Amino acid sequence: MKIHHLLENNSVANTFISELRSAEIQKDRMRFRKNIERIGEILGYELSKKLNYTAKEIKTPLGEISQQLPTDKLVICSILRAGLPLHNGLLNYFDKAENSFISAYRHHLNETEFEIKVEYVASPTLDEKTLILADPMLATGRSFVNVLHALKKLGTPEKIHIVAVIGSTEGIKFIEEEFPENTHLWIATIDEKLNDKGYIVPGLGDAGDKIFGTR
To answer: How many domains does the chain have?
Structure first.
């Protein structure tokens, strides 16, 4: 797996990440959602550099010019519910992409143990397409892996790109072992630890609750 770590280099994304992490600023749900959407746009821009391009003649009011344009058939698949603002950010840049939605949630067996359940899938076929899997949090990595298995019945994509805001080193290692070798991970920042409940530390808390409120 090829890992693209956005905060390895300083950029305006530092500001958006710091605001997402801030316990005070994240009380503003609209700002929290907007910052995730902004990061989706930035990661989408970086991802676009790895797509396939071909030349196309464009007519202007004064002449013609050859322009390199992307040719990938994109499907953006967001993991509900926290993936929705990230999905919007990606869709702002890939406005011709097809859209896919899938649910994945933690079913807690006790205080520290849980299983990932996938109960809803709405997606076009994935054969011969480029799949973008989006979820803000890459904690244990089990949601991404379970979603990958659930999507197999819809076909085999040519390429897979994973887009996340914050991940753990443990979760990244786990998905590296489960996803195809040529998968690309686009992630804004990486934290070292998970706590005993499988949440990223220092992280930012439960992204879904910060975006939409507690269930």
So the answer is: 1
